[in-house]
Amino acid sequence: MSLATFREQRLTQPHSAMLIFSDINISYLSAFTGHAATMLLTSKGNYLLTDYRYFEQAKLQATNFTVICRDRANQSLASLIEDLLFQDDCQHVGFESEHISVMQWQQIYQQISQLNKLSKIEPISGSVEALRFIKSTSEIAAIEQAAKIADTALAIMLNSVKAGITERELAIELDYQMAKLGSEEVSFATILLFGERSALPHGIPSDKQLKHGDIILIDFGAVVNGYRSDMTRTFVFGQASAEQKHIYQLVQSAQQAAIDEISEGVLGSHLYQQSANILLNSEYKKYAGEGLGHGVGLVLHEQPFIGPDCHTAIEKGCVITIEPGIYVPGWGGVRIEDDVVLTDKGLKILTKSPKNLIEL
């Protein structure tokens, strides 16, 4: 269905072709999960170009494609592409400019520009990504399963929280539990920070030891069938201070205000504004995070990117994160993040871990 839709949208001319270089986009369109591949779609055929390392795998997975094993010692990728374009009488070629280096493209361009019938070569940006914006039932199910793994792993890992444990040790334990529960890999490098270091929105776990009164900020996710989850929870080790409780309540209210407004056709900028109305009217406005969330799927950060300038409308099947935060340098930070999707039955929150402020 995705391949057919893409062909219908992009190959609108009888002599047109499209070069896909992104591993993620190739996987999305063909089901091939390996690497070292290039996809060429023409008005006459679907081609997946790879080498001996992935040839058999590609034949098994990319069943709607003619899989070609390139002899790397005797044929360049550029010359193979040239041969196929000539064979299929292609005159117009689009290519994924953001997923290929300048040097690699120069080699291909130099080769294919010699074709007499080739009259137009143009960069195409975000074409497959736009198709990935709306998730199918199976894609949503994979993200939901990844979120379930992350929820369970977090609950198990919290049993290891104790004074003196380091950020790095706790992050490793969380990653281990996700792997044990079936995650293919971590969705991204786990962010797990204590105390004042929690003010680093994307900080790297260190050897800092946990002490009573510290905020614990954890941003992490699991992967199922290539699809990623993304969740943040914030805790306090010991008794929370009045300021910690106050900031947590602000962030929680800001998140809920945005979630309450999610409906079909609502703009991302509107969702951002609902959250910003709370955070930017508080005494912590200069410490509020700039964005509100993003799409999530085969890639951690996908369209839409939800902020003040996001004019993309939310549609059914679009999986997004809602993650406002306050980050006070030298004091600490609070972020709450959930994965949500709009369905025929309304909004569904895929991440289930409790969001009340928990004192560990």
TrEMBL record:
One example GO MF annotation: aminopeptidase activity
Residue ranges of every copy of the Creatinase N-terminal domain listed in the record: 15-134
Pfam families tied to this protein: Creatinase_N, Peptidase_M24
InterPro entries the record matches: Creatin/AminoP/Spt16_N, Creatinase/aminopeptidase-like, Creatinase_N, Pept_M24, Pept_M24_MAP, Peptidase_M24B
Domain Peptidase M24: 142-344
PANTHER family: AMINOPEPTIDASE, AMINOPEPTIDASE YPDF
Protein known as: Peptidase M24
Organism of this sequence: Colwellia psychrerythraea (Vibrio psychroerythus)
UniProt lineage: Bacteria, Pseudomonadati, Pseudomonadota, Gammaproteobacteria, Alteromonadales
